[in-house]
Design brief:
Length: about 140
């Protein structure tokens, strides 16, 4: 049976989610206990980026191929894109919590403000170099 490409984006979402979700019940990390606070943080950020994504799709700045999605769309975005904004933050925070749990380190980011400032300045420079590219300037500015 040949692979159906319409499942591609969904499989990417599921691939990013499956291990973090299954391992969320690990006794040392106990990530499932943090779900209420996590989703309280994820939902407003996801809402912002979903609206942004929808607007840019409407403007034609980017698009989503029906060849690699199931074709179900809400406000112009495939359902897989909606899932992306839940799955990826979930997986990222899960990895962070695992690192804390298994290395025994609590957050010690004394260099974080310097690194964040450097990255911010770098992104502003890149945005300035691409003022006439709507996506680049909006994402990096």
């Amino acid at each position: 049976m040949p692979f159906n490409p319409h499942y591609t984006y969904l499989l990417v979402d599921l691939g990013a989610l499956i291990f973090p979700l299954l391992l969320s019940f690990d006794y040392k990390v106990a990530f499932h206990k943090r779900w209420p606070a996590l989703f309280l943080g994820i939902f407003p950020v996801a809402a912002f980026f979903i609206l942004w994504d929808s607007w840019f799709t409407h403007l034609g700045i980017w698009e989503f191929s029906d060849h690699y999605t199931l074709g179900w769309r809400i406000i112009g975005l495939p359902i897989e894109e909606w899932l992306f904004f839940l799955v990826v933050p979930y997986a990222c925070v899960f990895v962070y919590e695992c690192l804390k749990a298994y290395t025994g380190q609590r957050t010690k980011f004394s260099q974080a403000p310097k690194v964040a400032s450097f990255i911010g300045i770098l992104l502003l420079i890149i945005a300035g170099e691409h003022l006439f590219r709507a996506y680049t300037v909006s994402a990096m500015g």
